[in-house]
Structures are given as structure tokens and as C-alpha cells.
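Open question from group meeting: does this chain pack into something compact, or does most of it stay loose? Before anyone orders reagents, we agreed to write out a predicted structure and look at it together. Recording both the input and the output here so the notebook holds the full record.
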Amino acid sequence: MNRLVIGCGYLGLRVAQKWLRAGDTVFAVTRSVSRSEEFKSQGITPIVADVTDYQSLNNLPAAATVLFAVGFDRGRHQDVREVYVDGFKNVLERLPGETEQLIYVSTTGVYGDHDGGWISETTTVQPSRPSSHACWLAETALKQSGWWDKSVILRLAGIYGPQRIPRLDAIRSRRWSELNADGFINLIHVDDATAIIEQVAKLGISAETFLVSDGNPPNRTEFFQYLADRLGVGKIDWPSPVETESLQRGANKRISNRKLLERTGIKLSYADFRQGIDQSLL
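C-alpha cells returned:
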């Protein structure tokens, strides 16, 4: 099958590599010529284009699956909506009509803060940050487009894995004042996120929204202390609430993955963050 990855970064590249190993032909959009050479060396067919440049997207191939997992480059763009909303709309207009399925990677940040309560797909959306609000606008644009009956929205919790662990450097350096101990942290290991995207594509699911998390969110104090123990830096000297007033408070909620597990039959490899952290630190 032909697969197209738009946003071939930490998550997207892993999905592309999985599809390659399965024998698929994989295309990937990148703005960088040097990055395109890296893709070629791995067997990925690069397309040099920019989602914010409508004209550059005129050669997108027809594909069984299109994965949109574009991140925000703060060094290049001032407004997150330019990429997450306008760029996504450009892609929707440029995709060939033969495209069979579009998987849009969104965020659980669209729910904002819920005072530690459990969140499901039916919970009211109330994004509080610019990036989350932009993702919500992109989701809305998708549902209002002619592509919705071929699309799936995956609202991902925080992705972690090798070379990407929340607050790792701060804990390793004992910069306790930078840690936010407030509420729960919702996570999904990058290997599980990759497997979920594979399964959603395999099943051909459409017109659905899923929350993607490990379903077992720990309190931030529990998570950070476990990481500190694994790094051998000792007991965290938690800053007082007054000392952390300047920190951006984390949205306090717990993400349920029940619908995802029931609908896809997926079995997570890292349903417990401890297993995921141990694997990520190898």
C-alpha cells in the first residue's frame, strides 16, 4: 500500500519505519532538503513541501493512509494556528480524492483542566492553551470538511520514550524548583502510540475520535520521584506552592483509554509508566 506521513518526526518516523518493514511504499513530507536525503537513505520517498505553503503541496500522492502528525516549529512560525489550522486546511484541500483514510494526531490538551476528573471522548472540550485551541480548530475544520467520513482523530496524551522523558534534565540536575507537582500526568509511550496508529490504519476506522493514553495516569509527584530514583539523584525536595507560582500549572485530569482499547483490541506494551521509563532509559 501507499502511505503518506505529514510530520515525520519523533512519532511519525516510527510509524513510517513500521510501514516500510511491512512492505508498504512510504512517502513523507519535509521542508528540509537534507532531511529528504535522510529519508531516502531509509527507503522513504521524500516530498519537499511545507504545509503552510499551499502551492508546494500540489504533488501529494494518493495513499491508503495519510498520517498528519505535524509539530510546531517555534523558530520558524510565530502563530501556532498558521501550522495547526491553516496548514492542515491546505493539506485537506490538496489531498487526492483517492485517499482512503486520514489519521489526524491531536492532543488531550483540548480538554483543559478538570480538577483531576476522568476524561472520555464525550467530555466537553475546553482548551486553555493556544496550541490546544489550534488543534481543536483543526479538528473542527476536519469534521466540517468532505474528509470526515474517511478520517480518525487521535487525541494523544504526552508522548514519551527514548530521548524524550518529561523533565528529565531538570531531575538529573536536581533543579527541583522547575518541577510542577500539581495533579496527574497523562502519558503514552511512543511505541504504543505507533502500534495504535498501525492498528487504526489496519482496521480502516473512520469518522471516529479516540483518546490515546496508557489509561493509568500517576500523580506528578509519583512520576517524578520514580524517575529520580531511577537516575539515582535521591529524594526530591519539593518546592512550596509559593515557590512554584510562576510555573505553568499542569492541566489536572485523567485520560481514559477505554473506547480505544475496546474498539481496536490493542494491547499496550507499556500500560504502566514504570515499564515505559525503564525501557526509555536503557
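Observations to bring back to the group:
The mean pLDDT is 94.
Residues 80-94 form the longest helix (15 residues).
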